[in-house]
Amino acid sequence: QVQLVESGGGLVQAGGSLRLSCAASRSIFSINAMGWYRQAPGKQRELVAAIGTGSSTNYADSVKGRFTISRDNAKNTVYLQMNSLRPEDTAVYYCYAGPTYSPRFWGRGTQVTVSS
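Below the sequence we write its predicted structure tokens.
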């Protein structure tokens, strides 16, 4: 079991930046896959970024070159640096742990709103 708590969301203007954090309740050293999904109103939840234990990364095409995912095993935390934000990035962002396409654990989410 692992509890995940997201933070860092908020309201930002288009072109701005935010950094999301996902703090885990225990060591993430052995958790192979962690990352972020997002869900906008009326849309399905979609994968944004994933990171493995070897720090391999995977990004949605829509965020490549703008978002960067990283993990700090010593702090049991995963980060999502979001730059050049767009209104279409507005969503609730969820941290996950476990297999990327069938996560076992989820955080409660943090709202990101980008104004035009």
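The first strand starts at residue 4 and ends at 7.
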